[in-house]
Amino acid sequence: MNEPILKKMEAAPINSGEFFARSKARLNFDVPPGLIDPNIIPRTGDAGNDRMLEIVAREQPVRPAAVLIPVVDRREPTVLLTQRSPHLSSHAGQISFPGGKIDAMDASPLDAALREAEEEVGLRREFIEPIGYLDLYGTAFGFRILPTVARVKPGFKLKINEGEVVDAFEVPLAFLMNPENHQIHSKEFRGMERSYYAMPFAERYIWGATAGILRVLYERIYLA
């Protein structure tokens, strides 16, 4: 693994009102066909990652998943994240968004994200205002993740399901959307170099798919 570098793409900071307004203007609830179609490869802009996703799509079944990006509408907005339980079969102990695989009973990816948020941390639907889907995100484990950006009203009380997560915490949106905090690392996948993001925050190490999705949020809402 090489030393981290920073992604040099600058954007002026925006306030919370403008963040939600831009999100509503730029996002929608159209479900991308690549969520379930293995022949449609989510593109990342990184040649190594794109090649990895092509290989994964041939070798593993597509695993549709949904996550919630809960932006808490405080005076200084935050993003609610979780730390996964250490005994889970995939991504054990990692920092993540509330979410998981889309079940047959789920009416939509949005419904799956809301269900998982309530199951994992007790975040009730009446506090959540869904805004729209972010870009489809593929992983090395065959997951196709469709994130839902949502405004969360303060005043909620969480109830942690320790079978799935061991903690839930908030990180300032301003920190996560500051490109100076977007480190890029690289690792090898079958002889190819691929990159991934990391956004260390205090004692929390936010990296992998979670950091990658946050980067996509930054590029969609702050740069365009």
In short:
By secondary structure, the protein is an alpha+beta fold. It has helices spanning 16-26, 47-59, 109-121, 173-176, 208-223; strands at residues 5-6, 63-72, 78-84, 95-96, 99-101, 128-133, 137-138, 143-152, 165-172, 183-189, 192-198.
Question: What are the key terms here?
Answer:
single chain; 224 residues; alpha+beta; Nucleoside Triphosphate Pyrophosphohydrolase; 8-stranded mixed β-sheet; 3-stranded antiparallel β-sheet; 29% strand; coenzyme A diphosphatase activity
Protein architecture, described:
- Its cofactor is Mn(2+); Mg(2+).
- Keywords: Hydrolase, Magnesium, Manganese, Metal-binding.
- It comes from Bradyrhizobium archetypum.
- Pfam families: NUDIX.
- The chain is of the alpha+beta class.
- The chain has one domain: Nucleoside Triphosphate Pyrophosphohydrolase (Alpha-Beta Complex).
- 25% of the residues lie in helices and 29% in strands.
- The chain is built from 5 helices and 11 strands.
- Strand 10 and strand 11 form a beta hairpin.
- The two termini are 31 Å apart.
